Amino acid sequence: MAGDKTVETTGLLGWLDRRFPVTSTWKAHLSEYYAPKNFNFWYFFGSLALLVLVIQIVTGIFLVMHYKPDAEKAFQSVEYIMREVPWGWLVRYMHSTGASMFFVVVYLHMLRGLFYGSYRKPRELVWIFGVAIFLCLMAEAFFGYLLPWGQMSYWGAQVIVNLFSAIPFIGPELSIWIRGDYVVSDATLNRFFAFHVIAIPLVLIGLVAAHLVALHEVGSNNPDGVEIKDGPKDKYGRPLDGVPFHPFYTVHDIMGVAGFLLVFAAIVFFAPEMGGYFLEYNNFLPADSLKTPPHIAPVWYFTPFYSMLRATTDEFTWVLAGAAVLGAIALLLKSRIKGVARLALPVLLIVIAVLLRTIDAKFWGVVAMGGAVVILFFLPWLDHSPVKSIRYRPTWHKWFYGIFIVNFLVLGYLGTQPPSDAFNLTSQIGTLIYLGFFFLMPIWSRLGTFKPVPDRVTFHRH
To answer: Is 66 annotated as belonging to a binding site?
Structure first.
């Protein structure tokens, strides 16, 4: 019960409370955590991400009971799980489907944050923890992808690890250190297994806890971008535009969980391979270091960034260098920036242009791929819009977001296809659109006529 009175619990719960903050934690994060009353469909995906994390941990534990991280036995152990272990096929398909569904719900969760400005003050740290979780998920998926020791697992790992060799000076040695050998081998499998099963999950769970604690410290955002903590409150100090997370949103999220589990079960039982996007045909063949697949591509959730990697050719670096030079000239001629920065920024762009032409394009491909993720950390400081939510931004802003989403999907599709001149040109245009969306955000995000933001959240009973 909220208010100015403290009710002391008795019995077993009271005994626990005097030794561990059970009741106070329940109140702080559920029964007395007040969330905005106007949450919509987009707010299902945070809870669903937590659900999939639990599914992955539980199914992973059961898989590890029978899996052998040995180059001679790994593929056979997966086949044994699928064919001999009671319900092993179900556990394996739940885990493989869960990996893809994890990225589906996380991408949608991040998209909601982008729409409603959930990265803006005072939630910068919540967003940073979230992007760190996304990076951990990518690492976890990459390390886990090698474990079945199929053809695509083996050659996908070979290609991705070789990318690190493009880093000047330390690249070749770094690649050998990651693999533990000169090629992907038993040593690579063992260290990837250790990272996938122990190291990354520990970091991931810690980041999820930090993400939730940071969120509950500053409060949840909402589709209007209105801070309910700054709005009217009742005599107990509870926001009038908020409702207790439990039972309102715990019950609300059950509907989202039910819908998700229906889709999840349909995929697991009827289409676990999803036409080769969730499980590729080549991964049902044992790894063969002497036979390269005709087309090597990562799993679908990596393909947008893989497209950016492939798009960065030697010719493309000329385009980027030219853009950097034009940017430097524009800053010198028309910039309103004063002081040292007026000269420092153009000089920096000229240096970048020179580096683009003197360092191998393969390295810049790795930079583009990694930078496409790292730039998300800086989103709270790139967006200079006077309002948070897309609801109150100019209509053409919404078109920008739409183009960004379509472009990301196109890059994802191109990453699954064999390279060609037309696809490569499209990927290069898509890379420029993706990077331009963020790098030019300080300019375009403040332009246009913005709608007035209401003082209180807009809410319609349903």
So the answer is: no
The answer to the question of whether 211 is labelled as a binding residue is yes
Domain 29-284 has CATH 1.20.810.10: yes
The answer to whether 29 is a known ligand-binding residue is no
Q: Which two tokens stand for residue 78?
A: 């997966």
Is the pTM of the predicted complex or chain greater than 0.85? yes
* 462 appears as a binding residue in the annotation: no
Residue 216 assigned ligand-binding role: yes
428 three-class SS: helix
**Positive or negative torsion for Cα 156, 151, 106, 58:** negative
Chain center to CA of 349: 29
- The pLDDT tens digits for 188-229 are 999 999 999 999 999 999 999 999 999 999 999 999 999 988
DSSP assignments along 174-233, one per residue: HHHHHHTSSSS-HHHHHHHHHIIIIIHHHHHHHHHHHHHHHHHHH----TT---GGGS-B
Superfamily of domain 300-445: Cytochrome Bc1 Complex; Chain C (1.20.810.10)
* Sign of the alpha-carbon dihedral angle for 417, 422, 424, 429: negative
